[in-house]
Predict the 3D structure of the following.
Amino acid sequence: MTLFYVTLLILTTLIWGYVFYKKDYHPQPLKVIFQSFGVGLFAMVPVFAYRYIYQNFLPMLSEFRIFEPLLKSSIFSGFFVFLINLGLLSLILLALSGIVSLILNFFNHATLTNFKNAIKDEPLGFTTVSLFLGFAIFIQNLAQNTFNTSVIGTVLGTILFLAVVEEYIKHLMVRITDDKKLKDIDDAITLSIVVGLAFAFVETIIYSVIAGDMGLIIYRAMISIPIHLVASGIFGYYYGLAHFAKPIAELEGGDKKIKRKWLSKTLTLKKSTVYHEEKMIEGMFFATLFHAGMNLLFEFNLGFLSVPLIIAGIVVLFKLYKLGKAESLLIARLRRKIRKLKPLTKRKAKAYAAAR
């Protein structure tokens, strides 16, 4: 029976992967797909490493306690400590994911470059979404402290924040491994889904073994795998938009610097930079919202509601593929136009004249 359950899990994973691979109008070579899946199989390593770190060294970073400063301290000191903890945690997760990706890719130069860029670009989305979550928990705690309830600190704090951590790690595995391979927005969606499938595959086996019931594989194959692929695909779409921020900014009237009266000149940013950060934050937010929402349904014994929401999520993914294709075609046309308008160098002009 164990062999039957594992075979069913493998088939389910392959079917989902094939469905979304075929949705990509210009898919990556299968070698890249399997490489991404192989990296995704180890995406649980940073999750367990994170748990080991907070259990043995930094307990204040656990999903159970990271919100304590907001619940037990004043608003200013609480948010200050919470922000410091978030910054430290984002660096730890980035380092863990980066080390795993680098090892699995044999310290490939492109992977090293992706890691370096991720250190600069990626923590903001994680920190921002976590701050939004922390602020919401603080407000709800103020509204409900008269009831002396621990729901805010345990249920919401643990379930929602763990979803943020998992989505962040899955994204980092894609970002550090495949950033230079992306040809269009659909690629970002597909590769994110592939990593999400691999993550859910390993998670399903681990939790079934821990529970001592391999029959859980059937249940998780039907529910957990779609949840992860939808959340990862949503993040992948916004990651694709962020990845192509510069050409998209050109489509929208040029990559000009954005000036604000309340910002000093040193903080003036290009439109593409602002667009990149906005899309990364949106991707993290919507992916976490879907993932955490599913987790909360099961926490409150409303799991039956997950089925229509999963179906809706898959429909949304199909829509995102269409939007990604449309955006990518516009970007390709813009690049061809720019190449035609690009002035010739003296050497090329001389060669062109001689050829005539």
